[in-house]
Design goal:
Layout lengths: L6 E2 L3 E9 L1 H4 L11 E7 L1 E2 L2 E2 L12 H8 L1 H4 L1 H7 L5 E8 L5 E3 L3 H8 L6 E8 L4 E6 L5 H10 L6 E5 L5 E4 L5 E3 L3 E8 L5 E4 L15 H7 L18 E7 L4 E7 L3 E4 L7 E13 L7 E4 L3 E4 L5 E17 L1
Antiparallel strand pairs: 1-20, 2-3, 3-6, 4-5, 6-13, 7-14, 8-11, 8-13, 9-10, 9-12, 15-16, 16-21, 17-21, 18-19, 18-20, 18-21
């Protein structure tokens, strides 16, 4: 069996009513005939949206086919033991040129009982944004179900939501149950559980391409919302130099950021998981003792490092590079 190597995948582009063109102009995704690209699914194991390898001798194979063949060598023995051939995470780049719907995602328990699926906890890293760009995460005051319903019925829901200015480099952790929305002029990277269940609460009185309101899920959302209030929804961190620092850690994923202007070596010997890099700045050469040729990754690209690859060499090209480093 041939040796595994860092795997790139064909982006799965999603046209959205709130999308724009920055995934094409900034991150070099091929827009084709699409008018408004809202999402680029970088790595997905969801049925109907299986990622296909774009590089090397495995090109043309889907992610589930690879897991079936390589099992723990690809995803890690512990990950394979828990998830089998299902890839457990979903990686996206998202661009909003208009407001996304105000929405919430169910937790595992609710998603399992209602949809026989997993819940959706996610994390956002802001890649680019305009100075006045804002997003919604959580409530701006203590809240309970009854108060929420009153605001919803009175049309004052917007008044009790927490609006945050979104600057490049900002991080927001969105656990299942937290009400949220992305506002215009924001380009971000998203790491999430492998789930596509969204309950729309309010869609800004917007009509779809057929002139009809989009489907809402208001009744389902009420029981899915976590009404817990937080004084600070933004994740604080200090950007490292030629090192990594943690941005998010939960039972579903760990996300670090690697910021480096010189060659660095990484040892994943203690890790029993695949690693995914999402390039959010610069260009990087990815090398390893088992590789004949290093693989280049540029801003807007995503690469899967197989679990069996324990020694990785990262070399920045043209100055500083920045990678999100994700694993289980």
């Amino acid at each position: 069996m041939n040796t595994l190597y860092p795997l790139k995948f064909e982006p799965i582009l999603k046209e959205k009513i709130w999308g724009g063109n920055k995934l094409s102009t900034v991150l070099n995704k091929s827009q084709g005939s699409m008018q408004k690209i809202g999402e680029s699914w970088e790595l997905s194991g969801l049925e109907g949206d299986l990622s296909v390898v774009a590089n090397g001798f495995l090109a043309g194979n889907t992610i589930d086919e690879l897991i079936e063949i390589y099992m723990g060598d690809l995803v890690g023995d512990a990950v394979f033991s828990k998830f089998g051939t299902e890839f457990p995470l979903l990686f996206k780049f998202i661009e909003a040129s208009d407001n996304l719907s105000i929405q919430v995602h169910p937790n595992n328990e609710l998603a399992l009982s209602r949809h026989n699926a997993s819940g959706k906890t996610e994390m956002w890293y802001i890649v680019e944004s305009e100075p006045d760009a804002k997003l919604i995460t959580g409530f701006n005051r203590p809240m309970d179900k009854q108060q929420y319903l009153e605001h919803f019925k009175n049309g004052t829901l917007r008044d009790v939501l927490n609006w945050e200015t979104a600057k490049p480099g900002d991080v927001f952790f969105i656990p299942a149950g937290r009400i949220h929305s992305i506002g215009p002029n924001i380009l971000l990277a998203e790491v999430q559980q492998a789930s596509d269940i969204t309950y729309r609460i309010y869609d800004w009185d917007r009509l779809d391409a057929n002139g009809k309101p989009r489907e809402m899920h208001t009744d389902w959302a009420v029981d899915a919302i976590d009404y817990t209030f937080s004084k600070d929804y933004r994740t604080p961190y200090t950007m490292p130099q030629d090192n990594s620092t943690n941005l998010a850690k939960c039972q579903y994923f760990t996300v670090n950021i690697l910021n480096f202007a010189k060659h660095i070596d990484i040892d994943y010997g203690r890790l029993d998981s695949f690693v995914v890099y999402m390039a959010v700045e610069g260009k990087t050469l990815i090398g390893a003792p088992s590789l004949e040729q290093p693989i280049e990754i540029a801003k807007g690209e995503t690469v899967l490092i197989p679990a069996e690859m324990k020694e990785i060499e990262l070399t920045p090209l043209n100055g500083e590079s920045r990678l999100l480093e994700i694993y289980i």
